[in-house]
Specification:
The structure is a single chain. This protein has 8 helices and 29 strands. It is α+β, with helices and mostly antiparallel strands. The protein has 3 domains: 161 residues, Galactose-binding domain-like (Jelly Rolls); 104 residues, Immunoglobulins (Immunoglobulin-like), CATH 2.60.40; 296 residues, Glycosidases (TIM Barrel), CATH 3.20.20. The chain has a 7-stranded parallel sheet with strand order 26-25-24-23-29-28-27, covered by helices on one side. The chain has a 6-stranded antiparallel sheet with strand order 3-2-4-10-7-8, with no helix packed on it. Strands 1-12-5-9 form a 4-stranded antiparallel sheet, with no helix packed on it. Helix 3 runs parallel beside helix 4, helix 5 packs parallel to helix 7 and helix 7 packs parallel to helix 8. The longest helix has 18 residues.
Length: 588
């Protein structure tokens, strides 16, 4: 089951148009270690030394290059034919992600630049094109080993170490063109309210000032092919909000149409923009009617407590690293998670491909969306982190599967947060900025320990046995939240100056069990047999579930990642133990 306008490999499935062109594939490529490119005008004619397969980075085997050593500046070039029939349209060049700073030229003319390795961005390149001809798109990507830029699990040294892996440099998600009208929708922010049976659409409309006539916007909502509501209104300003009542008697009680893991119902919506009754833009989207709230130390989904059984997922593949090899691989990972009895995923230190979130929406997998960390606290780190995080929250807002925002993890980037008031205030600021864009989802301010303001209190603990876990947590809630003891033998649950406010408590990292190997590491001693693994896994999982004040957990982790070999699956997605046995433990 998919949404009405699902198109395989479409890079932005929350906002679909018909007219688009995928630019993935072979591009000319060149390293620029001397930073000579702009001085020598490579933007006008790039003499490539390699051919690279976009969107895979040069560090990966999938790219066709497979050089893992760091190069801070790289160039790409591709000739693209723009059909004569497209003349009169605006041509938008989209990049789903380029790490870290991108400059883009079209036929030698600078079209724009963007900073941030995880947020999508785009440029209107119409003024620089020759229609009916070949046009050259050139990209310079600059990266660094600077720890004040959000980098997540990307190493900043020559070799991998601890839980940090080969860096990602340059284009690592889809590049594509879109052919649109001057008058068009730039975005629609969709907010459901299940208590009032409404959904609101916050429109951003482009080109109103040049419209030669009256502009009208129509929204048509359907559910599983059946009509629900249709509204039409004249518009005279670029931003406006419309609220729609979704009670639809003909289709039965609307409350059966909520989005949840058990029933991931999605409403299709078609947006049509007219100028003097001529259709100029058609966009397909979807939304889910669902609510996330917190009451009495519980997380509620649709006003009912939900026990979260999450798995940590870093989203790495052997041949393509951070880039999913294809859409089928995305679907397969989600299916594996569901097959093991998990109802959610903590997407760790990575902003994932929009298609991943789409399939989580469709299949009903809960998602914690987590920002890639910086690793130093500095004015520049505050600036770069804040700018990119706000872009990401805005871009991911409409996905019903996302139920939690996680801007910080384990005090990374804020290493002295326990006592440093500047670092504490930074996390408070990010919390409140996130809430200003999205007041409807919980925000976890420092996942793992040393929380400041946070809607959920999350704790990381890699104790090896269930008995060990119980000795630390059973009956010890007050001691932990009042900082009379640490939560995992070495970190306090809350930073100095912050008290427990009755938040839900979740063990958001545990386990990390690895089979015996000399090629990598896991947490604690490595196990030898399947029976030993399952005994330890079951003991820990059952211990967590038996503690009454804990309302969820997140197991580390879905797959092996390079030197970290503690996945339930190998890096090439082969199960280490029968998945039905994992499911039985999770569900019983």
């Amino acid at each position: 089951m998919t949404t009405k306008a699902y198109t395989k490999d479409y890079p932005r499935p929350q906002f679909v148009r018909d007219g688009w062109l995928n630019l993935n594939g072979e591009w000319s490529f060149r390293f620029d270690d001397e930073n000579a490119g702009e001085r020598e005008k490579w933007q006008e004619r790039l003499a490539g030394t390699h051919t690279i397969t976009v969107p895979y980075t040069y560090e990966t085997q999938a790219s066709g290059i497979g050089i893992e050593e760091f190069h801070s500046k790289v160039w790409y070039s591709k000739s693209v034919h723009i059909p004569k029939e497209a003349e009169g349209k605006k041509v938008i060049l989209h990049f789903q992600a380029v790490d870290y700073f991108a400059k883009v030229w079209v036929n030698g003319v600078l079209a724009g630049s963007h900073q941030g390795g995880y947020a999508a961005f785009s440029f209107d390149i119409t003024p620089y094109l020759a229609f009916g001809s070949d046009n050259v798109i050139t990209v310079k990507a600059e990266d660094s080993d600077d720890c004040t830029q959000p980098r997540g699990k990307q190493r900043w040294t020559k070799d991998n170490f601890e839980c940090f892996y080969v860096q990602t440099t340059g284009i690592w998600q889809t590049v594509w063109l879109e052919f649109v009208a001057e008058q068009r929708l730039d975005a629609v922010k969709m907010t459901s309210d299940i208590d009032r049976s409404t959904v609101s659409f916050d429109y951003r409309v482009h080109g109103l000032e040049t419209a030669a006539g009256k502009v009208r916007l129509e929204a048509i909502v359907t559910l599983k092919g059946r009509p629900v509501k249709s509204v039409s209104l004249a518009i005279d300003r670029p931003r406006l909000t419309v609220e729609i009542d979704l009670v639809h008697e003909a289709n039965g009680p609307w409350r059966k149409c909520l989005w949840s893991p058990q029933q991931p119902n999605l409403y299709d919506v078609e947006f049509n923009l007219y100028v003097d009754d001529k259709l100029v833009d058609k966009v397909f989207s979807y939304f889910g009617m669902r609510k996330v709230s917190i009451e009495k130390s519980k997380v509620l989904l649709n006003n009912v407590p939900v026990y979260q059984r999450l798995i940590l997922d870093q989203g790495y593949w052997t041949e393509s690293h951070l880039t999913p090899p294809n859409e089928e691989a995305i679907i397969a990972d989600i299916d594996h998670i569901l097959e093991m009895g998990y109802n959610g995923v903590r997407k760790h230190m990575k902003i994932e491909d929009a298609r991943f979130l789409y399939w989580c929406d469709v299949k009903g997998l809960l998602v914690w969306s987590e920002m890639a960390a910086t690793f130093e606290f500095h004015d520049r780190a505050v600036e770069t982190f804040t700018k990119e995080w706000l872009e990401i929250v805005d871009q991911q807002y409409n996905h019903p599967s996302i139920i939690t925002w996680v801007p910080f993890n384990e005090s990374w980037g804020v290493p002295s947060i326990l006592r440093d008031t500047r670092q504490q205030k930074f996390t408070e600021g990010i919390y409140h900025l996130t809430k200003s864009i999205d007041p409807y989802r919980p925000v976890i301010t420092n996942d793992g320990w040393e929380h400041t303001v946070s809607d959920i209190l999350t704790l990381h603990d890699y104790v090896e046995t269930g008995d060990g876990f119980l000795s630390r947590y059973s009956g010890n809630k007050e001691a932990i939240v009042n900082k009379e003891t640490t939560c995992n033998q070495w970190k306090y649950a809350l930073a100095d100056g912050y008290g427990y406010k009755g938040q839900p408590i979740i063990i958001s990292e545990f386990g990390g069990i690895a089979f015996q190997s000399d090629k990598g590491w896991g947490y604690g001693h490595q196990v030898v047999t399947e029976e030993e693994f399952l005994d330890r896994f079951e003991g820990l999982t059952r211990a967590i579930k038996s503690v009454d004040y804990i309302c969820g957990y997140c197991y580390t982790q879905l797959t092996d990642v390079q030197q970290e070999i503690n996945g339930l699956l190998t890096e090439d997605r082969k199960p280490k133990v029968p998945l039905d046995k994992i499911k039985e433990i999770n569900l019983n």
